[in-house]
Design a protein that fits this description.
single chain, alpha/beta, eight-stranded mixed beta sheet, 13 helices, 8 strands, 53% helix, membrane
C-alpha cells in the first residue's frame, strides 16, 4: 500500500522534468558540492580540531552555528525554490533544545525534511542522526556527517550498541542543545520489505503493519538509556508525501513532492517507561498508531489536527544563500589565486578530513581544559 497521498481528488501531479529544471538541478548540485567542500576544508580543521582541543562544548557550538547555516540551504530549496508545501499537524512544538526524534522511513530523503522543523525551532545545527555507516563513505558529505558527529551503525546489535553508547555518552551535558533523530525501522519502506516484516511479525506474534515496518526497538532503548535524564521530550513524527514519495534527485530537480505532511506527537520523557521491555512495547504501540495515521492519510488526504506553522522567510533565504556562496567564492579565490600557503592548508585539511572520517577520529581536550569544562558543568548542576 503506497501512502504518499496518491489521491485523484487532490489533483496534485509531479512536476515534469523540463530542460530548465535539469539545468537548475545541475547548478544546485554544483552549488551544494562546492559550498560543502569549501566550508569543510576551511572551517573544520580550525573548529573541529583546533578549538576542540580546548573545549568540546565551544567546538560544537561554533560548528553548529556555521554548518547550521549551510544546512539551511536545503529547507530553503525545498520550500522557497522548489515550492514544496510543508503541512504540519498534531501537537505544536515548544522551543526545546534537547529532544529525541523518531520517524517512519518512507523514502531515502525523509531525514532531510526533519531540517524543516529544526530550522523553524532554531536547532538546525544541533540535529544529529543515527545513520547507516555506508553513508559515512560518501564523498564530501561523509566528512560533514563526521564533523557534525552523526552516529554510524552497521545494523548489527553486537557491533552497534557499544558504538552508540560511547558516542551518546558525550552528549549528556544538558548545556548542549541536541536534536537526535532515529529511524527505528532501520531502512526505508518498500512493499517487499513490508511483506518480509509482516511474515516476521506473524511468526513472532507481533502486530502486522501495512504502512510501516516493524521497529527495531533496541536502538531506541539505547538512546533512552544514555540520554533519559537529560532529554526534554520525544517527538514522534509521521511523514507522508503528495503526490508520491520523492527521491534525492526529485528534490534536486524540484519534480517532487508537491506536499510534505508531518504529524507531530510530543511525548514528555516521564511518560515513556525507562525499563527496556516496557519502552520496547511503547515503541511498538507508537508504530501501530503510525500505521493507522498513514492508513487514514491514504483515505482522507491529510493527517488530523492540521495547524499553521511559521513560513520560512524569503529574505533570510536570500541572505543565507548570499553569505554561503560569497564565502565559498572567497575560499576558491584564496585557494587558486593567492599565496601558496592556502594551497598547502587545503592539502593538509583534505588529508585530515579523509583521515579523521576513515578512522573515526575526534580529538579530546587537554587535561587542563577538561578540568575547566568539568568544573563549569559541575557549577551548572
Amino acid at each position: 500500500m503506497e501512502v504518499c497521498g496518491d489521491l485523484n481528488s487532490d489533483n496534485l501531479k509531479n512536476r515534469p522534468l523540463t530542460p530548465l529544471r535539469i539545468l537548475r538541478g545541475i547548478i544546485i548540485l554544483l552549488v551544494y558540492l562546492s559550498t560543502a567542500f569549501m566550508f569543510l576544508i576551511y572551517f573544520a580543521p580550525v573548529f573541529a580540531l583546533g578549538l576542540r582541543l580546548l573545549s568540546v562544548h565551544q567546538s560544537r557550538k561554533v560548528i553548529s552555528f556555521i554548518f547550521g547555516h549551510w544546512l539551511a540551504l536545503w529547507p530553503y530549496l525545498f520550500e522557497t525554490v522548489n515550492g514544496t508545501t510543508v503541512v504540519f499537524s498534531g501537537d505544536s512544538i515548544p522551543v526545546e533544545k534537547r529532544v529525541l526524534l523518531i520517524a517512519n522511513h518512507r523514502t531515502e530523503v525523509d531525514w532531510m525534511y526533519l531540517w524543516n522543523i529544526a530550522l523553524r525551532k532554531g536547532c538546525l545545527g544541533y540535529i544529529k542522526y543515527v545513520l547507516k555507516s555506508s553513508l559515512m563513505r560518501l564523498p564530501i558529505f561523509g566528512w560533514g556527517f563526521h564533523i557534525l558527529e552523526f552516529i554510524p551503525v552497521e545494523r548489527k546489535r553486537e557491533v552497534d550498541e557499544p558504538v552508540m553508547l560511547e558516542m551518546l555518552s558525550t552528549f549528556k551535558d544538558p548545556r548542549e542543545p541536541l536534536w537526535l533523530a532515529l529511524f527505528p525501522e532501520g531502512t526505508d519502506f518498500t512493499e517487499e520489505k513490508c511483506k518480509r516484516s509482516q511474515e516476521f511479525a506473524k511468526e513472532a506474534g507481533l502486530p502486522a503493519l501495512s504502512n510501516v515496518l516493524l521497529p527495531k526497538t533496541r536502538g531506541f532503548g539505547v538512546c533512552l538509556e544514555a540520554l533519559h535524564n537529560s532529554l526534554d521530550a520525544v517527538y514522534d513524527l509521521t511523514i507522508a508525501y503528495k503526490p508520491r514519495c520523492p527521491s534525492f534527485m526529485d528534490n534536486v530537480f524540484g519534480t517532487d513532492p508537491s506536499e510534505v505532511h508531518i504529524h507531530v506527537r510530543r511525548v514528555p520523557l516521564n511518560e515513556i517507561p525507562a525499563n527496556e521491555a516496557e519502552s520496547s512495547a511503547w515503541l511498538m504501540d507508537s508504530y501501530q498508531l503510525k500505521d493507522k495515521l498513514l492508513s487514514d492519510f491514504s483515505a482522507q488526504g491529510q493527517f488530523p489536527n492540521q495547524r499553521p506553522e511559521e513560513e520560512l522567510s524569503i529574505l533570510k533565504c536570500i541572505a543565507t544563500f548570499s553569505v554561503v556562496i560569497s564565502l565559498t567564492a572567497l575560499f576558491i579565490y584564496l585557494t587558486l589565486y593567492t599565496h601558496s600557503s592556502f594551497k598547502v592548508y587545503v592539502g593538509l585539511s583534505f588529508t585530515y578530513l579523509s583521515f579523521a572520517t576513515y578512522y573515526k577520529f575526534r580529538p579530546s581536550p587537554s587535561i587542563g581544559c577538561c578540568r575547566g569544562d568539568s568544573s563549569k558543568e559541575a557549577k551548572t548542576h
